[in-house]
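re: ur question from earlier - yeah i can do the single chain one, its not a big deal. heres the input i used so u can compare w yours
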Amino acid sequence: MYGRESIIEQAVQAVSAPSGHVSIMGTGGVGKTSLALSILHHPDAKKNVFGDLRFFISCEGAESGVIGIWRAIVPELGVTETKLERYGLAILGKLESMGPCVICLDNLETPLEAEARMTTEEARLQKNTVQSFLLDIATLENVRLVITLRGNQSPKDIRWPLRIPLKPVDVMSALAIFKDVSGKDGDADAETLVTAVDCLPLAVTLLARIAQYEETNDVLQHWNEKTVSMVKEQRGSDKLSSLEVSIQLSYDQIQSEDAKCLLRISAMLPDGARADLLDSFASHMDSRSGWSELLYLALGEQRGSSFHVLSPIRHYVMSKYPLDPQLVLLLQEHYFSFAENGNGLIHPHIWYSRVQEMGNIEYILLHALGVLTDERARLSAAAESDLDLAEGSDTLKFVRVILQTSRACFGFMRMADYINFAFNSQQLIALVTPLCRWLYNCDPERFRHLYVRCLQLLLETTTLRNTLTSAQVYDCRVKTLAVYSLCKALGQSCCIREATSTEAYICLSNCNWKKAEEVLMVGIQSATDHHDIATMREMLAKAMMNQKRYDEAIETLQLALAHYQDIQDSLGQANAYSTLASVYRYQGGNIAAEEGNLKLALAKYQWSRTPHGQSEAHLTLGICQFDQGKLAEAETNIRHALDLHVKLKDLRAQATERFLLGIICLQLSRIEDTIDYWKPIVRNEGLHISDENHAEYLERIRDLLQEKEEALKDTEGFGELAHIVRDGIFHD
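and the output i got, formated as tokens:
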């Protein structure tokens, strides 16, 4: 029971005490049954207290209320009574005649729900109730009662010394479950997989069973495509072999339409539904009532002022019970407005308040883009030249909806760019690019304003750093520059900064420094916006640096810094300080200035809360300090960089940092630490280093060991390190 050790110990202590009844509550698949069995089979419970008098009773089939519980208990206790109406008394008599014993009633919600559905006449004929029977058991001095049930409420009128509202396990425990079941190490793909299901034990276990026969990255890909429908075993369709069945059982417990509506809304919001958002749905549901019911059923949890639903439940609800289209439009209206406000934001304190809902905005935007992509496929059934773009036509409405959605997407990406929140803009580009062509081919003069807006969106998208890979950005900028040329032929004077930056980027990528400088000088002279001027000056400095005109590059960057400071753009300042440090490094002879600017860059990245910027600044600063022999400071900074890159899942950077940290520890004669840092590199464990880079790392490590062998050969652990490296080289 990974991640449950302390809870088990606490529960065993509770049941060992007089009247030590335990109630285990939670959502489906969270591990209630497994926890109850672990308590019953714990060595202390078996040897020291109850011996063989430990009874596990499944109430899953108890569809007839208390009578169903009686029927499940009778054979387990060996009760000989044959008359159904006397089962209850016979069970109590049998329990009372025993020594200290513990009885677990698993899935108690089944008989409780069955009883709640009974008519008045059916209830009268039963005479006894589940509640009264539980109370009778709880009053027996020698009996300890353990129950499990879905939801967050224990049966009333019984004193429960220990109530356990069970939650999913932590990531490390989920990875341990995955490794134990699948037999595979918990690599980056496994961590992504268990995180995707919010570390729900049943989901992790079932996915791990699939991973016994498939590669982990293949399982992850299948999860991304199929979500909860893949998390089941072929052997059956009970709640322990299918996540769908388990979630459906919980969903069936919902009584009110308010709760169902809230669950469907929350399912579309991975960061949770905020209370102020739910107020806008007041005419469609009573969110307070629905909130209380879902908390009671453990179908969600409250985090601050938001209502959250676990990932597997979210995916299942969206698949089986999609939200009404009118309510989807309300969500889009709210989050589109929220996202568009991100366009042009440069003050961290403004956009940081939005960070908590970045996942919500992203999902709503991607959902909208998905719908538009389907609509585009339908409209494209006709030849593009035959598309009807008359006023009021479906196609023209479609174009305008795309522009509205795209505007929101760009505003969101602007925010995402500041905090390094990765948003894949490929889908947006795939929608907007054909629009430019459609509008131009149909009637460029008539649709000039729409055409220009499409073009602006396309160009602006490529100015963001974290939405595409370098190769994708380059390809997209080449295409958008061609589109810009078409617009320029129509006499449009829009997108000067975007077009200039795009052309300069292409020139810099091709090492055409002179051409980049010419383009940027023209752009700077025609620009009026401080941010645009600062951005182009920063690019200009890079062109100058690569032409070894270091003094001019420094002067240009100082001008860019002045512009960034005027508009209080902390992230712009951080980037400029970082570039300035690079100029000093290439120039040589002023390592103090390089270190000073890197420290300023790091401080600004920290203020801007940009993890990518912080990680790169820590790494570069650490290398600078290493070159000066400041090993302790270098180790601290490179260690910070490694920790950040682990969180960011940047494996390539992790390999670099492990290599550098190993060198530092080797120089400090800390061989054990060197082994810890270098072993994953030598064995290429979890870092996915290419064969070429792996061979290069091995060669450099071997050379370093040969240099240090004479001085360190008698140091404890050096022989083990050399052996590991030799094995790695031989294996490679």
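Confidence is low (pLDDT under 50) at residues 343-352, 728-732. not sure if urs matches, ping me
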